[in-house]
Amino acid sequence: MVGDTSRNLVRVFLLQDRLKNLGGKSKQPIERVHVVGAGVMGGDIAAWCALRGLRVTLQDQDDERIKPAMTRAAELFRRRFSGE
Questions:
Q1: pLDDT of 6-45, one tens digit each?
Q2: Distance from C-alpha of 29 to C-alpha of 40, rounded to nearest angstrom
Q3: In terms of pTM, does the model score above 0.70?
Q4: b/e for 47-81, b at 16 or more Cβ within 10 A?
Q5: Which of 5, 8, 48, 60 could form a disulfide with 65 if both were Cys (CB 3.0 to 4.6 A apart)?
Q6: For the segment 64-80, what is each residue's pLDDT rounded down to a tens digit?
């Protein structure tokens, strides 16, 4: 508990805890989301937000990088709304 690594780990834990406490409900409802990067994570975040009724824009270097995200989103919506 006296080494640099352990002190830094404790500091990171306390900072994370402080950030969690600062979070909360926004006074203004979120209506739009812009996601930069249509990789697996960005594309799935965009799809998840759209599924919850948010207006979503998705940005990447070109359309070819966005196509796989749109395909995954279409499959997610199909499964969600068909009851599978």
A1: 999 999 999 999 988 887 777 788 899 999 999 999 999 9
A2: 26
A3: no
A4: bebbeeeeebebebeeeebbeebeebbeebeeeee
A5: 60
A6: 999 999 999 999 999 99
